[in-house]
Design brief:
Elements: E1 3-8, H1 16-24, E2 29-32, E3 41-45, E4 48-52, E5 65-68, E6 73-74, H2 76-88, E7 97-100, E8 104-105, H3 108-120, H4 131-140, H5 146-149, H6 152-173, H7 181-195, E9 199-200, H8 202-211, E10 216-219, H9 244-250, E11 259-265, E12 268-270, H10 283-291, E13 304-306, E14 308-309, H11 310-320, E15 324-328, E16 338-347, E17 350-351, H12 359-363, E18 366-373, H13 390-403, E19 406-411, E20 419-420
Parallel strand pairs: 1-10, 1-11, 2-5, 2-10, 5-7, 6-8, 7-9, 11-15, 14-16, 15-19
Antiparallel strand pairs: 3-4, 12-13, 16-17, 16-18, 19-20
The structure holds guanosine-5'-diphosphate, 6-O-phosphoryl inosine monophosphate and magnesium ion.
Guanosine-5'-diphosphate is lined by residues 8, 12-18, 40-42, 44, 297, 328-329, 331-332, 411-414.
């Protein structure tokens, strides 16, 4: 039975939350495999909008079990408040959420260091949620894991050692004041009581579910171009949103994965710093931001906007193994006379064959655009692929053809019913 990886194919905020929520209807389990509360996944149900940060986007279907995998980094304060908000809205979380005992914890000092580093070294434009510093500790092998919460003595000892080291860094390197060990120990001992009911060996749970033929969605956060290995380093997040991250971040083998779906916006956005070849600094960029309501779901920051970048997408398709795409926010392009797609990059007079991962080249490329006629009519009424205006279909088919992918879902608005469900007009463009 299927294990589908649903991931962001660009720089995040592609609409993964909406697509995962929609596909959850047919699934049994939704499992998040990396990142933390830096994510903001929006799900709109009727006239209510929910923004999820750590909880998988399958939570709104009562039959779904949600898993937060070992590859994530968990800020217990953020998680507890997210659970409380959902429960207050009538969404039952208890009994439906499993958290990996091997996931790492985000500590108050990770958030502090995240913010300080942004001020003192390369300005990545992070979300300030402590993600980078928590993954540093994980890979330094000093991180504190969920399982450590369950043993008070181990927790206290590890926290003391870690905080002593952080205090040396805070005072000597950054001239900041020390943080108090005892307050943090007390705070995290309290989380232990509240988190206990959710904690389990999720790798065993997921592998048993695979063996039992359950249908699983592995949900990525961020996007492939923010991947620490395959993105626009150093302007990336500190984990692997690409499809391989689903295996390491959940403890499932690559052979279990049956399909990989790239969620892709019909144009491009990026929040935070770093190269963005198709960015539009003019009225068109502003129009995409306004019509698309392109403001961060986690930080509220305005997102940078530009045309769809087929070169970057081909890179994403290659490193992820994307075969099918869910194209979102097509309706945002409704009013445009013409719509651009970047078909190639030029660098010092030469066409580049591949998306450059070397920052200096990428910052220096000139995008080559092809323009396609708009459809100039609202799309959200279309329930079937064939009902889309011809120019909209032609645009989608160009996106698919240029990136070597198959159209699978088309989203024409934030709501569940504003979706052309899979498979859209089965391989019509092939
Ligand atoms: P995620 O992080 O990938 O889940 O995406 P975000 O939730 O951060 O950003 C996507 C935004 O676009 C949210 O406000 C969604 O409600 C909205 N959205 C999703 N799909 C569509 C769509 O097809 N059309 C429009 N207009 N908005 C959409
Ligand atoms: P979702 O899951 C868009 C960006 C930040 C910054 C960089 C590093 O909603 O798509 P971090 O706090 O992770 O160390 O920041 O990554 N970033 C995102 N951009 N969507 C996200 O998540 C993001 N999560 C992190 O803006 O540029
Ligand atoms: Mg988001």
């Amino acid at each position: 039975m299927p294990v589908q990886v649903i991931l962001g194919a660009q720089w995040g905020d592609e609409g993964k939350g909406k697509i995962v929520d929609m596909l959850s209807e047919q699934a049994d389990i939704v499992a998040r495999y990396q990142g933390g509360a830096n994510a903001g996944h929006t799900v709109v149900i009727g006239d209510r909008q929910y923004v999820l940060h750590l909880i998988p986007s399958g939570m709104f279907h009562p039959h779904i079990i949600c898993v937060i995998g070992n590859g994530t980094v968990i800020d217990p304060a953020a998680l507890m408040s997210e659970i409380a908000q959902l429960e207050a809205a009538g969404i039952k979380v208890s009994g439906r959420l499993l958290i990996s005992h091997n996931a790492h914890l985000i500590m108050p000092y990770h958030k502090l260091l995240d913010v300080i580093r942004e001020q003192t070294s390369t300005k990545i434009g992070t979300t300030g949620r402590g993600i980078g510093p928590a993954y540093i500790d994980k890979f330094m092998r000093t991180g504190i894991r969920i399982v450590d919460l369950l043993d008070r003595d181990v927790l206290a000892a590890k926290l003391k050692t870690n905080i002593e080291e952080k205090n040396r860094i805070l005072t000597r390197v950054y001239g900041e004041s020390k943080i108090d060990v005892d307050a943090i120990i007390a705070e995290y001992e309290d989380f232990d009581k509240r988190i206990d009911e959710y904690v389990t060996n999720t790798a065993v749970y997921l592998n048993q579910a695979i063996a039992a033929g359950k249908s699983i969605i592995a949900e990525g956060a961020q996007g492939a171009l923010l991947d620490v290995d395959h993105g626009t380093y150093p302007y990336v997040t500190s984990s692997n949103p690409t499809s391989g991250g689903a295996c390491t971040g959940l403890g499932i083998p690559p052979t279990a994965i049956t399909s990989i779906v790239g969620v892709v916006k019909a144009y491009s956005t990026r929040v935070g710093n770093g190269p963005f070849p198709t960015e539009l600094h003019d009225g068109t960029g502003e129009r995409l931001r306004t019509v698309g309501n392109e403001f961060g779901a986690t930080t509220g920051r305005p997102r940078r906007c530009g045309w769809f970048d087929a070169v970057a997408m081909r890179h994403s398709v290659m490193v992820n193994g994307i075969e099918q795409v869910a194209v979102t926010k097509l309706d945002v392009l409704d009013g445009f006379d013409e719509i651009g797609i970047c078909v190639a990059y030029e660098h010092r007079g030469k066409r580049l064959r591949h998306f450059p991962t070397d920052l200096r080249t990428l910052e220096d490329v000139t995008p080559v655009f092809e323009f396609f006629p708009g459809w100039k009519t609202p799309l959200s009424a279309a329930g079937r692929y064939e009902e889309l205006p011809e120019n909209a279909r032609r645009y989608l088919e160009q996106m698919a053809e240029m990136t070597g992918t198959r159209l699978w879902v088309v989203s024409t608005g934030p709501r569940r019913d504003q979706t052309i469900a899979p498979p859209v007009g089965a391989d019509q463009h092939r």
